[in-house]
Amino acid sequence: APIIVWFRTDLRLADNPALTAAAQASADTGAAVIPLYILEEETGGTAGTSPAGTSTWPLGGAQRWWLHGSLERLGTCCARHGSPLLLRRGEPGAVLDALIAETGAGCVLWNRRYTPAGTARDAAIKQGLKARGIDARSFNAALLAEPWTVRNKSGGSFKVFTPFWRHVSSTLNPPLPTRAPATLKAPQTAPAGDRLADWGLLPTRPDWAAGLRRRWVPGETAALSHLAEFLDGPVGAYATERDRPDRAGTSALSPYLAFGEIGPRQIWHAARHAADARPELAAGIEAFLREVGWREFQYHLLHHAPDLPDRPLDSRFTGFAWRDDPAGLRAWQRGRTGYPIVDAGMRQLWETGWMHNRVRMIVASFLIKDLLLPWQEGERWFWDTLVDADLAQNAGNWQWVAGCGADAAPFFRVFNPVLQGEKFDPAGDYVRRYVPELGRLPARWIHQPWAAPAEVLRQAGVRLGDSYPRPILDHGAARERALALYKELKEGV
Ligand code: FAD
Q: Are residues 88 and 60 in the same domain?
């Protein structure tokens, strides 16, 4: 009887325990392997939804674009290995039942997902399959350690990152990643599936994905070469360069991780190997793995707090007096706040589907603390525009900046967009790349064009309020307003 391998956010052939188990069983018994991907958007998205009573998170626009490219490549790889990828859409339990009835499959294998709705749905499906005598089994391909296995000394879950990572990184011994199976035996009659092009994952009109196409090549092959190139040298300077949006100092692996085109265990082993081979890279590698540890931490948090995407972990923030300001929100989304580093970040996001981590923190602080808009608004916009949108990372990081999450930055730490720009984009190259209308401003003024002498602006061809917006608010005053509100919150007024 054939074995179904149900792909979800593990779109790779190497280090894929479900696929490895299927290939092994196939070699032992001669069973065929049917690789399957189900588009679940009608039921709330493959990326995961929140539990009943909270909002749903269907795939965002940028993710849909990435998914198309990723499935195209996975399809090519599966076909090359012998068994084509089958595409179906609908409620996954029903899709699986139909496929089992058609093919006589006796076994369904998958790698676990860790979003609350995904976990709940998978548990129900597994139970249903087992009740009908189908061998249904799941594996871990997405995390270094299963969330339920990591406990602090008193038996609870970690709420603070540093002890979490100290514990995990010192006790961890993740299995070595497996290679892609040499061959996959196809069923004698191939079940009929959808055509990827008919899923409408790509934007039509307007075609906003040109910048994404220029910036990214989805898929497992690209993921592995990104990692290899990064570990080959750039990682050595990671500890300092990672905060510089004007340089390519980070790995850019996040979208590949979000879709499981690469797994953290592959990163872990490759990085450890590189550190052993080249001790001069070791400090950079430690810093890099620590960030991979943050990814892990956010997943563990989401596991223990399933409404993390919707509600502040710190319940004091539940009734916070957020403002309602559609014009301010729109200026932020479009990169037209008049604060160059904020605008550069938001435009990088729109153009490329990605934003540098330092700038994510700056723009998030601006939305939450300067504009006093709810962090959930920013979370939603990021969800739709990021190619690496990931329920746990997005929610955990927004809550972190807002000061209402686990181990969060304190609310009273308000980023100053001018000082942040001057510190982390000192020559203004990052701003110039994404805000070309300021391109000819000297570095001294590029992070605060409103302060530049009229003559400087004229020479640079900048007409404030016309070619580039004046600041939509005064940062100093906005900061005072935020701090006053925070004080009320703390005092429980
Ligand atoms: P590198 O610096 O090369 O780091 C390697 C890997 O470590 C990353 O790919 C990522 O998996 C992990 N990592 C790095 N920084 C963080 C972090 N702060 N938190 C958790 N994991 C981290 N990341 C997402 O993957 N998806 C999101 O939806 C997302 N939303 C965010 C929202 C906000 C408001 C903020 C401040 C950060 C968010 N991040 C998110 C985290 C971080 O910005 C990105 O993971 C990082 O910029 C990706 O670039 P990179 O792969 O070059 O990172």
A: yes
CA distance 117 to 54: 11
Domain CATH code at residue 336:
1.10.579.10
Has 398 been annotated as catalytic? yes
Probe residue for ligand 1, chosen from 291, 346, 404, 424 as the CB with the greatest number of ligand atoms within 8 Å: 291
Tell me the C-alpha distance between 96 and 337, whole Å. 49
Instruction: Please tell me whether residues 10 and 92 are part of one structural domain.
Output: yes
Residues 34, 5: contact at Cβ < 8 Å?
Answer: yes
Residue 229 covered by a domain? yes
Residues 458 and 444 grouped into a single domain: yes
Burial of 85 (0-12, 13-18, 19+ CB in 10 A): buried
Q: What is the CATH number of the domain that holds 85?
A: 3.40.50.620
> 292: Cβ below 6 Å to ligand 1?
yes
- In a domain, residue 182? The reply is no
Active site residue 286: no
Q: Identify the pLDDT of residue 54.
A: 53
Lowest-confidence pick of 29-38, 192-201, 202-211, 452-461: 202-211
Distance 31 CA to ligand 1 centre (A): 40
| Structure ipTM over 0.90, yes or no | yes
Whether 254 is in a domain gets the answer yes
* Nearest C-alpha neighbor of 258 from the set 146, 113, 127: 113
d(CA 14, CA 405): 35
pLDDT at residue number 55: 65
* Atom number, ligand 1, closest to the C-alpha of residue 389: 28
Angle separating helix axes 220-231 and 264-277, nearest 10 degrees: 30
Which range marks the domain in which residue 151 is found? 143-174+220-304
pLDDT digits (tens, 9 = 90+) for 104-146: 999 999 999 999 999 999 999 999 999 999 999 999 999 999 9
- Tell me the pLDDT tens digit for each residue of 415-451: 999 999 999 999 999 999 999 999 999 999 999 999 9
Total structural domains in the chain? 3
Spacing of C-alpha 214 from chain mean position? 19
The reply, when asked if residue 390 is annotated as ligand binding, is: yes
Q: How far is the CA of 306 from the centre of ligand 1 (A)?
A: 20
Residue 457 lies inside a defined structural domain of this protein:
yes
Query: Which atom belonging to ligand 1 lies closest to the Cα atom of 378?
Result: 34
Which atom in ligand 1 lies closest to the alpha carbon of residue 298? Answer: 20
Picking from 255, 272, 304, the residue at the C-terminal end of a domain is: 304
409 among annotated binding-site residues: no
